[in-house]
Amino acid sequence: MIFRRIRSGAFSAIPGTLLLAAFLAFVVLVLRIAATESPIMSSDEYAYVANAKYVDAAAQVHQMDPGLQQVENRVYPALYAVWKAISPHHTALAGRILNALSFVLGAFILFAIFSRVFDRKSALVSALLYLALPLSFYATTLLPEVEFQLSIYLVAGVVVLAGPRPRYLFIALAAALCALSYFIKPHAAALILACSAYWFATGLLERDATARLRWRRALSRTAVFGTLTGLLIVVVTKLLPADAASSAGIMPSFYVVYIGQIFDVAFLSRNLISVVNYVGGHFWVLLVLFTPGLVAIAGAVHGLLRGGENTLGAVDPERERRACFALFIALTLAAFLLMVALFTSSAAMGNDFERDRLHGRYLAGLLPFLLAYSVWASSRAGSRLVPLLATTALVGFFFIGSTMYHLFPWDYPDAFGFFRPAPHSWTFDGALTRSAWWLLVLGIGCWLFALRFKASRLPYAAFALLWMLAGHAQMARWAAFQSGQNRPIIAAANAIDTFLGDVSVGSGLIATSDRYGATSTLLMALDTPQYVRTFAAHATLGPADVPEGVRWIVVPHSMGVDIAGSAELHFADQRLVLLDATYRWPLIRAKNDWDGRPLMIDTGYSGTPALLHGFNDAEEWGSWSRLERAVVELPVRIGGPLVIEFFAWQVANHPDFILRIRVGDAVREIRLSATGRDYRVVLYPAEEVDRVVFESNVVRTAGESRGLGVALARLRISRAEPQTE
């Protein structure tokens, strides 16, 4: 029954223009994915990927990395499994491409919905403009935003198919889709609330029924929807085991706080002004972008509430269907605005970054419907007050609203064209400084043109394309900046990953001064769950800072490492510190035999391929050993007879200082002076080895926190003449 209705009428024919536009949009998105140094939203993307990839070891992962956000999602692990099945070695790329494809497919779902609510031309124009929305940015990430948006579209499609007098089959289908949407993102609680209110309203607003019958229908529809939705959520929650980091209840712990605030009178009384402020800020942005649509929706809802030709049971079925859909969109918008306002108001407490921030990401699923109503309404002969209201909202937001509220590219890509760099506020290198001014001037021109041609889609379509183009341009500059920031981090992570090979979980430590941002990018590129700890920007790590079992540490250059037995490799702005001299690292497990040419080892790390274990941080002249057994690991396997020449000295006034030089089973003992001198020893190891060991006592002098053994400045290894009997 449902599928026959979907295939009938306007649903049966897809315009060739839309097919071509969808294909081009998909190509553009894939090119954008290829051109971006991902992850561009690293903190959120890594949280989702890590929680999905290591879902079976969630408790251990969160214990090792306490700063990892807990993502309570039962759908995302399944999505990740699909991406991995498609491409085990390029899972992230597969996920981004499938998200881009899902976004494009959304155009066809929306066209089908629009075709039942509006005229065909308005539906086509709206679907085409949807493909140009800057919110397509989310389709290039690994976040479940596109899936969440699609779930909203599907619920809206069921509402349209159900009509003003919904059968319980459609209510049940809407409940199933709302439950699915809830498991994609818990923010769908706002969608569930809106649907409940809508089913209740459809019963009360029926004109051709008695009051008692209207109330019975309203309550029964709401009860059926609420019961089925709750039952599905409970059943799925019980059938799909939650990971150790998730809430065991029906509602994820993330959302319990914010939903509970709706019923917390004390919270609302204290934060009422803040909540109203955020609702007003979002509505202001939406009014700038979708003035005709919001006015049309408000008019349709007002007509339903006051009775008359828009009341359910009126003669015109198209008007009736459009008015009902306007009511659904209005209720959904109100629920989401309240949800976002409560969320932001709580997050802003004690957090200056969150204060006055507009989280438009959670409203993205509603923007196509506001866009479609705007396109349709602009083609109707309306009041001249609409262009005047749009102009006032535009000018006011440009000069006042954009300074009151913070617009970030990851929050409001569709409004990011209004972003202007300003002193003492967040910005980025390369931000466009004049695009917002051009948008203001040309936008005013579009609305002045609309005053002359009241029944034309052209002025609004032109204005919509303007703010879309401005948003894409500013987003592209930010993406280029972010890619530039990510590039050295990703390169360093890839090099470290190549060197380490397959390492065990918990064998490494990522030290950072900022758990999010660049660190999340590094973690996602390393693609292995390890310990993550946060320290001061210029801290020096000691043995007490290293968890048990850690064999390697990644630290930025701003941090120091004061740990016995360490050796360092430099990768861009990161350093890899190796702690275990006996661990057989994958890259250096198989080494070539020595060709006999002398090896010149620079212990000051000027580029010679050797590893120092058990030495202090390298200095310009060389390195002090810090362990009684310090090791110089060589790039090749050497065999005797050998001549080892080096320039070294010991700590002054250190009696009985003996240095043992060991190569395999061959050992020589010498005494060093407190001043630098050249030394030469000959060794005859029985087997080939890849390291020279320096054994000595280690002392700590006054005012020196490091252990000091032998100061090794230069090291040369060459072949000796064979031993004669």
Low-confidence stretches: 6-12, 243-254
Q: Specify the helix fraction band.
A: 40-55%
Rg from Cα: 33 Å
User: How would you sum up the global shape?
Assistant: elongated
Number of helices: 20
How many domain modules? 4
Largest sheet: 5 strands, mixed
The order of strands across the largest sheet is 2-1-4-7-6
Percent strand:
5-15%
Terminal CA distance reads 101 Å
Mean of pLDDT: 86
**Overall SS class:** alpha+beta
Based on DSSP secondary structure assignment, what is the total number of beta strands? 17
What does this molecule look like?
- It is a single chain.
- This protein is an alpha+beta fold.
- The chain has four domains: 2-35 and 72-380, no CATH class; 381-500, no CATH class; 505-578, no CATH class; 591-719, Jelly Rolls.
- Helix content is 50%, strand content 12%.
- It contains 20 helices and 17 strands.
- The strands form four sheets. A five-stranded mixed sheet has the order 2-1-4-7-6. Strands 8, 10, 12, 15 and 17 form a five-stranded antiparallel sheet that branches. Strands 9-11-16-13-14 form a five-stranded antiparallel sheet, with no helix packed on it.
- It is elongated and about 110 Å long.
- The termini are far apart.
- Mean pLDDT is 86; it is low at 6-12 and 243-254.
